[in-house]
Amino acid sequence: MKKIIKFGEDVEGYDIPVLNEREIRAAAGILFLATFTSLMFILFKGNFVPIKYVIVLFFSDFMIRVFINPRFSPTLILARLIVQNQTPEYVGAPQKKFAWIIGVVLSAIMFYFFVIVNAYSPITGIICLICLIFLFFESVFGICLGCKFYPLFFKDKVQYCPGEVCDVKQKQDIQKTSISQFIILLAFIAFVYLTVYLMHARFNEKPHALFGNKNTEQIK
Predict the structure, then answer these.
(1) Burial 95-112 (b: 16+ CB within 10 A, else e)
(2) Domain for residue 11, yes or no?
(3) How far apart are the first and last CA of the chain?
(4) Lowest mean pLDDT among 32-36, 42-46, 122-126, 207-211
(5) Co-location of 117 and 212 in the same domain
């Protein structure tokens, strides 16, 4: 039973149970894609059916992760198959469990409103946005936002963070950002705003069929 109900893996050389960050990021990407796609159905079709299925799967998956064992999480199993040829990157299990408890709470609220009550509100919209942000940062940047709150509730030092961000260290030259790079970034932001200002009317024009008759398209 201890082998079944467990959080994290015992790996030689690590003092605490750990998880494979590569699997976690892949699973976060899977959930992000599913959640984002279901929200597109709501925005463009007014169809709430896909989001209800996603919420049930999301909630069930996180319940398995936290209260049984991450090894039995369907999304983490699928993620393991996807990244099985990549070298594992071990991260501490305690902070991940705390982050996933936050996921359980958020998905439980969504489950209650969407599945049980069958209603939506600004609350569900905000929670969906929070979940998307959390999943996006995890999958794209490898940053666990939920883990950032771990030190606020626990005095234990966070160990084995992705990219060793928990350890105090000096940045290497390749990691430093120069003044010229900041200027380029600001110039690009200004370019985006200028493009929106100058091209908004043009971009709002409906495209015509490339190989069709333009006059016929305008008549329609």
Answers:
(1) bbbbbbebbbebbeebbe
(2) no
(3) 68
(4) 207-211
(5) no
